[in-house]
Write a structure and sequence with these properties.
Blueprint: H1 2-41, H2 47-57, H3 61-72, H4 92-102, H5 116-133, H6 138-147, H7 149-156, H8 174-194
Helix pairs in contact: 2-5, 3-8, 5-6, 6-7, 6-8
């Protein structure tokens, strides 16, 4: 019996040593490539347009990256079931409203939202509008971007969702809650990775 136990120990020792070496190598590799992984998970694409329109509308560019990542994962040809288009997933009704505000004399059509610059221009304006309307509160602005200003304004009048009538404390709809969480967490990651 003692020889069998000794043999078991002699077999287990190299296996445990190998597992330890592999775990250590994995940890070192992960640490070495963590920055690359984070940049891959939270990319910055269309930087020229994002930076320009963020500056024009006074928005932290990391907020715009968070919206684009959440809305389309940087696919300029993205379409939603709700009929939203492009990088920042703008619906036709919202496009028409924004066009009236920032481009009333331009011959842009809803199809132009597949163009990254046009989409980021319109989306940046709308993000800026929502942030201004809700005192710079990102979560409330994100809820409005997702569910509409009218919906959020209605919720702000209900104590169950807003204690101050200016920002939302709670989100009654699961999709809205999930969207706000995605935007705020994505913004946090972008801010940590790129600043």
């Amino acid at each position: 019996m003692p020889k069998a136990k000794k043999r078991k120990r002699s077999i287990l020792a190299p296996i445990l040593a190998l597992l330890l070496v592999l775990a250590l190598a994995g940890t070192l590799l992960f640490s070495a490539f963590r920055d690359k992984i984070e940049h891959w998970e939270y990319p910055q694409r269309f930087t020229e347009y994002v930076e320009y329109y963020a500056g024009k509308y006074g928005i932290d560019p990391m907020i715009l990256y968070a919206f684009i990542r959440t809305e389309s994962n940087f696919d300029p040809n993205a379409d939603s079931d709700a009929g939203a288009r492009g990088l920042m997933q703008i619906t036709e009704v919202t496009f028409d409203w924004i066009k009236m505000k920032i481009a009333p004399t331009e011959s842009l059509t809803f199809d132009d939202l597949y163009d990254p610059e046009t989409n980021i221009r319109f989306g940046s304006y709308f993000v800026s509008y929502c942030l201004d309307r809700y005192s710079g509160h990102l979560a409330t602005a994100a809820a409005a971007y997702h569910s509409g200003v009218g919906t959020v304004d209605g919720l702000l009048g209900q104590e169950a969702y807003s204690t101050d009538g200016v920002t939302l404390d709670h989100y009654p709809y699961p999709q809205m809650r999930l969207y706000v969480k995605k935007i705020t967490e994505s913004y946090q990651h972008y801010s940590e990775i790129y600043k």
